[in-house]
């Protein structure tokens, strides 16, 4: 139940409790009246009959002597008034009563009627002598027992109403404390703990607004914790990148300085001069490539969006796989490609060219001379080539529906299983790669490949065995990117 509804219910209960008590009082008094009224009627009729035997004596009215008046019974709860035929009071059972006359209209009013109120029952009757009125008497009975019962019930109801009100008030306070004050206190305490870096769980489950607030606060804490974890990992990554960049730049800079100092000598020969100059230029190209890759990696790790366009698969991927024959020939690597693609695909052309450059360069770098480098690009309409082992083919068949799969396989030393997880980390290099400057890359190529493919909505994996390594990339057909016609 929502807090608003709880407060409305509590207010309604607080208002209805006294009303309910008063209603119960009314019902009890009404029932008590019905119960007592009949008994009172019987008892009062007996009293009226008893007093009537004495008061119907005409001599009381014709000759009101003290001896006759003293015969009228007296009771504390009964008042008797005797009038002559003119309305003058000739007797009253109340001591020190002031005697006066009543008007004829009031004298004849309500004769024979038994008037009943909460306090009194009254009967007024005339007295006749030979069909002539000689006087009147009026008997008033105080309802003592009825008043006692009424007062006791009133006291009980008042106590009950007060008790109900107090109980209702206490109940409402407990509900408010349990449903509002307690969870808010837990939330405030958790917020204070969270502000100083401590995480305290809030054990409160409810569907009201405070429950939703606590749930959102817990989710916010988890999100902030996740963000902080990502920031720490990013900070570690940056520190690692700075360390790696410093290390990887230090070696070529040292070489450049050394060969530059050699060029300053006057005794070097022309072929040595050309060799040193070539080495310096190669080192400069290496550093330039590293800076370019570092810049691209930094861009891709932001909210950078791919400039996706819709391309015809066969034409695009055939173009993408061309132009690497000369590079492989120069490195004495046999380049074998196979393209079988149908359908349209949403790609960033420039970034996909960068991907292909990086994976081919990586493949050439780790392919032994005289060995083969394979490139296969297939959509689901085409079967996978036989140079892919059967186990890998079965694995890829299960996941390449509505996708194009790009496979780069090189023949050479494989990657240890414990190192596969680290291959896509920035600046990661195997130890033998760091020692071999000929085969050394910047360490960012595959990291950039992974970021670009993932921004295309695809995925990248590495499958490695003892004498071969495959980089597998999958991209969905028209994966929902924004097209630029």
UniProtKB/TrEMBL annotation:
Keyword field? ATP-binding, Cell membrane, Kinase, Membrane, Nucleotide-binding, Phosphoprotein, Transferase, Transmembrane, Transmembrane helix, Two-component regulatory system
User: Where is the HAMP domain positioned along the sequence?
Assistant: 178-229
Task: Provide the protein's localization.
Answer: Cell membrane
Keyword Membrane belongs to the record: yes
Query: Record's SMART domains?
Result: HATPase_c (SM00387), HisKA (SM00388)
Alphabetical GO CC annotations of the entry are: plasma membrane
Q: Which reaction does it catalyse?
A: ATP + protein L-histidine = ADP + protein N-phospho-L-histidine
Pfam families given for it? Answer: HATPase_c (PF02518), HisKA (PF00512)
The EC number of this protein is 2.7.13.3
Q: Which residues form a coiled coil?
A: none
Q: GO molecular-function annotation terms?
A: ATP binding; phosphorelay sensor kinase activity
Topology of this chain in the membrane: Multi-pass membrane protein
Cell membrane among keywords: yes
What parts of the sequence cross the membrane?
7-29, 155-176
| Record domain Histidine kinase: where | 244-479
The primary site where this protein sits is membrane
Name of the protein in question: histidine kinase
Q: Which organism is it from?
A: Gottschalkia acidurici (strain ATCC 7906 / DSM 604 / BCRC 14475 / CIP 104303 / KCTC 5404 / NCIMB 10678 / 9a) (Clostridium acidurici)
Specify the taxonomic lineage. Answer: Bacteria, Bacillati, Bacillota, Tissierellia, Tissierellales
């Amino acid at each position: 139940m929502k807090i608003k509804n709880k407060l409305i219910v509590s207010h309604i209960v607080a208002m209805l409790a006294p009303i309910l008590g008063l209603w119960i009082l009314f019902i009890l008094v009404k029932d008590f009246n019905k119960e007592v009224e009949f008994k009172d009627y019987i008892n009062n009729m007996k009293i009226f009959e008893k007093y009537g035997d004495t008061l119907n004596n005409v001599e009381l009215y014709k000759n009101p002597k003290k001896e006759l008046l003293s015969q009228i019974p007296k009771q504390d709860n009964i008042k008797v008034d005797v009038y002559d035929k003119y309305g003058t009071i000739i007797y009253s059972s109340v001591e020190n009563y002031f005697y006066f006359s009543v008007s004829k209209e009031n004298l004849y009013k309500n004769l024979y009627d038994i008037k009943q109120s909460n306090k009194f029952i009254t009967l007024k009757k005339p007295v006749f002598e030979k069909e002539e009125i000689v006087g009147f008497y009026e008997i008033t009975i105080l309802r003592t027992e009825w008043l006692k019962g009424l007062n006791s019930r009133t006291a009980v109801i008042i106590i009950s109403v007060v008790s109900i009100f107090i109980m209702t008030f206490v109940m409402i306070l407990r509900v408010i404390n349990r449903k509002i004050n307690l969870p808010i206190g837990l939330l405030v305490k958790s917020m204070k703990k969270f502000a100083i870096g401590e995480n305290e769980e809030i054990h409160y489950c409810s569907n009201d607004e405070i429950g939703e607030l606590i749930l959102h606060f817990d989710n916010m804490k988890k999100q902030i914790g996740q963000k902080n974890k990502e920031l720490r990992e990013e900070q570690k990554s940056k520190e690692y990148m700075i360390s790696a960049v410093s290390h990887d730049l230090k070696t070529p800079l040292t070489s450049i300085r050394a060969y530059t100092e050699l060029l300053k000598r006057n005794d070097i020969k022309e072929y040595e001069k050309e060799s040193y100059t070539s080495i310096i230029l190669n080192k400069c190209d290496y550093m330039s490539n590293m800076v370019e890759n570092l810049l691209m990696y930094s861009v891709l790790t932001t909210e950078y969006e791919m400039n996706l366009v819709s391309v015809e698969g066969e034409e695009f991927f055939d173009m993408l796989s061309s132009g690497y024959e000369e590079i492989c020939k120069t490195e004495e690597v046999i380049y074998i490609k196979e393209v079988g693609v149908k359908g349209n695909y949403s790609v960033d052309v420039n970034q996909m060219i960068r991907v292909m450059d990086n994976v081919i360069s990586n493949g050439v770098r780790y392919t032994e001379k005289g060995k083969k480098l394979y490139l296969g690009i297939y959509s689901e309409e085409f079967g996978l080539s036989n140079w892919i082992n059967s186990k890998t083919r079965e694995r890829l068949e299960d996941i390449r529906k509505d996708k194009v799969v790009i496979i780069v396989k090189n023949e050479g030393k494989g990657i240890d299983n414990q190192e596969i997880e680290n291959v896509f980390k920035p600046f990661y290099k195997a130890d033998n790669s760091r020692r071999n400057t000929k085969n050394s890359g910047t360490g960012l190529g595959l990291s950039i490949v992974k970021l670009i493919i993932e921004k295309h909505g695809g995925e990248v994996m590495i499958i490695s065995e003892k004498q071969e390594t495959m980089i597998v990339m999958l991209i969905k057909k028209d994966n929902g990117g924004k097209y630029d016609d």
